[in-house]
From TrEMBL:
Protein name in UniProt: AcrR family transcriptional regulator
DNA-binding region extent: 31-50
GO process annotations (BP): negative regulation of DNA-templated transcription; response to antibiotic
Keyword Translocase: no
Domain HTH tetR-type as annotated: residue spans: 8-68
GO molecular function, one term: transcription cis-regulatory region binding
Keywords: DNA-binding, Repressor, Transcription, Transcription regulation
Domain of life where this protein originates: Bacteria
InterPro entries attached to this UniProt entry: Homeodomain-like_sf (IPR009057), HTH-type_TetR-like_transc_reg (IPR050109), HTH_TetR (IPR001647), Repressor_TetR_C (IPR004111), Tet_transcr_reg_TetR (IPR003012), Tet_transcr_reg_TetR-rel_C_sf (IPR036271)
Key word Ligase present: no
One Pfam entry name: TetR_N
Species this chain originates from: Spinactinospora alkalitolerans
């Protein structure tokens, strides 16, 4: 039997093509019609696998969240657990920045995200944090991670020195920041995370028994 000219559609192939489209064109650039054109199939072919674009995006979000590591909580060290979780969470989101607004809306019913949230909450409460505090720490960590993943501080400056020289004396080297963006962003995230964790340690020490 002759092999088909177009590879048979599968959910995995659809998700990969859709994510590549989002990475390239943004969330607004994804439509089932456009995705079908990328896959060289009719749009109707997609609907036997995914009824809606939102359902497809939910599965893509689940796959991205698979890379988020919550194993650091297993030893009972909440600070280590938060560090591993936050760094891997940021890396997973930063790899696909156009997906961040969708993922950041919340876990909803996404199984992988809910497993991660459950592990974080359990790790914190198991280490002695009250449940309400644990919920707040999870939320605060998310705010830190999403903010770091969705934009780059350093790349927000213009490369043209004339924008800054003689106009903003304290920003006279700002045009060079983009050259070191990855380094600055990584170290800045580390600084923010460390300060956050130090503050939590002080808070935990003063919680009533």
């Amino acid at each position: 039997m002759a092999r088909p000219k177009t590879p048979i559609l599968s959910p995995v192939r659809i998700r990969r093509a859709a994510l590549a489209l989002v990475d390239r064109d943004g969330l607004d650039g994804l439509s089932m019609r456009k995705l079908a054109a990328e896959l060289d199939v009719q749009a109707a072919s997609l609907y036997s696998h995914y009824r809606t674009k939102d359902e497809l995006l939910q599965d893509i979000a689940n796959e991205i969240m698979e890379d988020v590591d919550v194993s650091g909580f297993t030893g009972g060290d909440w600070r280590h657990g938060l560090t591993v979780w936050a760094r891997s969470y940021r890396a997973a989101l930063a790899a696909h920045p156009h997906m961040v607004p969708f993922i950041a809306m919340g876990p909803g019913r996404r199984e992988v995200s809910l497993h991660r949230a459950d592990a974080v909450h359990g790790g914190l409460t198991g280490a002695g944090w009250p449940a309400r505090q644990a919920t707040m720490i999870g939320a605060a960590t998310k705010y830190l991670v999403v903010g770091a993943a969705i934009s780059s501080f350093s790349r927000g400056f213009d490369d043209d020195v004339r924008v800054y020289v003689n106009r903003y004396p304290n920003l006279s080297q700002a045009h060079r920041l983009s050259e070191h963006a990855a380094e600055i962003d990584e170290e800045s995230f580390g600084l923010a995370l460390s300060a956050f964790l130090d503050g939590l340690e002080a808070r935990l020490a003063h919680l009533p028994d």
